[in-house]
């Protein structure tokens, strides 16, 4: 029997719930975040840019990470600026489970 770790997120009423989905596997960071990564890529780099998964090492564990892509160009997503400017929120980290280990993901949170 193959064990697939579950994604554990603690959601509060202050969290922007856009794009949060807890059903897919935990090692896909789309679901570690309340941020629509595809829209963040388009917002930051232009409408022709897309988001794409990239296998990488987060901490000591092999997990999926998200990058922005255009043809052969790649760039990272500035989630803090996207949260602040597009949603008038601050970014913050949220603990999540990946391959049996606790890692950090991102979400937009309302300013207090």
TrEMBL record:
Top-level lineage group: Eukaryota
Signal peptide range: 1-17
Keyword annotations of the record: Signal
Protein name per Swiss-Prot or TrEMBL: Secreted protein
